[in-house]
# Entry
Amino acid sequence: MLGHVGEVLGVAGESGSGKTTLLRCLAGLERPDAGKILYGDEVWFDATENRWLPPQKRRVGYLSQEYALFPHLTVEENIAYGLGSLSVHEQRERVAEMMGLLQIDALRGQRPGKLSGGERQRVALARALAPRPRLLLLDEPLSALDAPARERLRTELRRLLVSFKIPTILVTHDRLEALALGDQMAVLIGGQLRQVGSVPEVFSRPADVTVAEAVGMENVLAARVVARAGELVTLELGGRELIAVGSVPSEDVLACVRAEDVMIFKEALLASVSVRNRLRGQIAALSDEGPLVRVTVDCGFPLIAVITHQACEELALREGESVTAAIKAAAIHLIPRAEGGGLEPPGPCGPYRFSRPAP
# Structure
């Protein structure tokens, strides 16, 4: 439930999982085959009672991946397009307000074909916000931009969403985008919501292996529980032992570890490390990933870490070099592993309701 005014719900899932279809159903652009769509106590769709609220009565702002600006209209005319119910004076005031907030006043008379990707994104967002919707739907809003533009606009978009205090649903494939923009996270798999929770919780503590894959969990390692002592659990994997903290879903588990929770050390620095889990291994691969370096360590099983370029240079890491990977016990999240290593599929996590924002 979007329980707070201005809360942002990120929706993740692999291609074809139904993310865009979900937004289109909420916007009233597609009609589901079954079920209900509720906004607070207001029924937008009920298949059983054959109830359907048309899109224009839902007051939903929808920003598609392509932005869908009208090429023959100016920036000012695009933003004013959905304001037909207002007087001419009110339309001008609202358009001026939107252009000021999104810092696009200088683009007033230009047409979309003359704009950069970032400028088109701002205009499209201004058009979606101008009618003052009660729910905002964003479908991969930054996907059409290059990496530097995405980084620059993430923080600004979050500021705008918070300032407008409109509950927002954001579809994204980008983990950094979800972390920067979202308050809550929902994972959609095969048309079903499989997990809903805070963004850090879903990314670090996935409910099952398919959720782990959907949120890009880098390390999902088959392990067996060999001992327990209170909340401490001893795992065996690849001939090595790891200590984890928490409940044990079964004897055969999958140990999930985010790459940023794996620390890399050289022998000379180990004396100052108090982390319980230390795994000796060799660097199998180094891969440049923008501001970070992806390090794959062969510990008897492949273990992935991400570190900064500065850390990589200071450690003078090279492929084939011996290092120690360290993992805090609390950073290891355990999920069940079905016989043969597959998934025990849980059912859907249940209905998800959208709260009506306070007036």
